[in-house]
Amino acid sequence: MDTYSGYNQILMHKDKKAKTSFIIDRWTYCYKVMPSGLKNAGATYQRLMNRIFKEQIGKTMEVYVHDMLVKASKRADHIKNLAEAFRLLRQYRMKLNPSKCTFGVSSGRFLGYLGTQRVSKSVVNSALIRGELRTQHPVFYTSKAVLDAETHYPKLEKLILALVVSTRKLRPYYQAHRVIVMTDFPLRSIFHNPDASQRLMKWAIELS
Predict the structure, then answer these.
(1) Which residue segment(s) compose the domain that 137 sits in?
(2) Predicted confidence (pLDDT) per residue in 38-73, tens digit
């Protein structure tokens, strides 16, 4: 989602309007709202977004300046999250630009990147994220092109392969800090399964 001329939806302080003045046809004008040319316009707008969506960012929303993404794993939750986002926008009298909004999609562009649910069969990747208060900061991204034999691994083994690749590349981080693996799979019980394959047992030893 995107707002309609978002910077112009923020009023200028009455004592600062004169600093935005300009002359056209012998008349002097000044902005009543924040123009996009101000040095700190982006930071001011981001601060407003952080204030509006302080309870949603990192949970049901991601916001970067004027780009907003409402997310959910289930359709019903997505509708509820959208309703809450709309309520907050109305509360702060922020207007959206319909031509720049897309709803109910499982893939799309955000911050210039294409996000999709499709899983690559030729690459495994992971992201190391540092949580701070209500925000998440990416620290490092890892990826590896899988070998021909590895393309035939089951989905679970590809997931663990991504974890193994991550620990090998980011060993100093794993050794110096506690790292929490965010996944839908019960990795602990899988590694302790006596019927696990030799490959899984080998990886379990490496990760322990």
Answers:
(1) 119-207
(2) 888 889 999 999 999 999 888 888 888 878 888 888
Beta strands 108-110 and 67-70 are: unpaired
User: Same domain, yes or no, for 10 and 104?
Assistant: yes
Query: Whose CA is closest to 144, among 129, 127, 157, 162?
Result: 162
Whether residue 94 sits in one domain with residue 136 = no
Strand partners, 150: none
What is the rounded CA–CA span in Å between residue 73 and residue 1?
18
pLDDT digits (tens, 9 = 90+) for 117-151: 555 677 888 888 887 766 777 888 888 888 888 88
Residue 94 located in a structural domain = yes
Could you tell me if 19 and 104 lie in one domain? yes
Per-residue pLDDT reduced to its tens digit, 10-45: 899 999 899 889 998 889 999 999 988 888 888 999
Q: How far apart are CA 41 and CA 34, in angstroms?
A: 7
Cα-to-chain-centroid distance, residue 17? 35
Side-chain-side CA neighbours of residue 69 (13 Å) = 18
Residue type, 95: K
For residue 203, the domain's CATH number is: 3.10.20
